[in-house]
Design a protein that fits this description.
With 212 residues, the chain is of the alpha/beta class. The protein has a single domain, classed as Rossmann fold (3-Layer(aba) Sandwich). Helix content is 39%, strand content 16%. It has 10 helices and 6 strands. The chain has a 6-stranded parallel sheet, with helices on both faces.
């Protein structure tokens, strides 16, 4: 690829935070993180599995140590990816604004980009102190091809102009893969190969996850 097609080098150092339950982590998460890293010139992306996510109503979320290990296995082959157990160590619910503020202390002076799926961003008005959060970092909403951006725009219209300017979107074809579908496939005895890294697939079967 010629240099003319590469993103311009940002003035400040940039880091991405990839948030999610990761139950399980799959290729959609990995492709979204890599595309965001490339498009926005980030030095690395930190995957942060949620401890007790406030917006998840499922009662059968896998144990934190399993989700952390699956994420570690998934990112191990990419030198630009790493993981953090910050949210899992925190007492109580996992709020994004607390995570971002903690990371800003570690990466003082860096620009922080929080990467998540567009479905999560559609719920952004219910997030804790969303206007304050968007003063702390940029948001990258990874969307599936054909995603209705008008729905996202309608939601964001309730935020200030300054806050909306901090939200970016990228299109990621692999986001047609979903953790929910993978769990259902395991439960029904259907294949999950090629939907997620082989090491994660093996971990799921070795630990008998999602079978009930």
């Amino acid at each position: 690829m010629s240099d003319i097609n590469k993103p311009a080098q940002p003035e400040k150092r940039r880091i991405g935070l990839m948030g999610g339950t990761f139950d399980p982590v799959h290729h959609g998460h990995l492709v979204a993180a890599e595309e965001a890293r490339y498009q926005f010139g980030m030095e690395k992306v930190i995957f942060i599995p949620a401890g007790k996510p406030p917006h998840k109503t499922r009662q059968d979320i896998s144990p934190p140590e399993h989700r952390l290990e699956m994420t570690r296995l998934a990112v191990s082959s990419n030198p630009h990816f790493t993981i953090s157990d910050l949210e899992m160590k925190r007492e109580g619910l996992s709020y994004t604004i607390d995570t971002v503020r903690a990371m800003k202390k570690v990466y003082a002076g860096w620009e922080i980009f929080f990467i998540t799926g567009s479905d999560a961003v559609l719920e952004i008005l219910t997030w804790k102190n969303v206007e304050g959060l968007l003063q702390e970092c940029f948001f990258i909403a990874a969307t599936r091809p054909g995603f209705n951006l008008e729905a996202l725009g309608h939601k964001l219209s309730h935020l200030s102009r300054e806050a909306v300017a901090k939200i970016k979107t990228i299109e990621v074809p692999a986001l047609a893969i979903s953790s929910t579908d993978i769990r259902h496939r395991v439960r029904e005895g259907r294949p999950i190969k090629y939907l997620l890294p082989e090491a994660v697939e093996k971990f799921i079967y070795q630990n008998k996850l999602y079978q009930i």
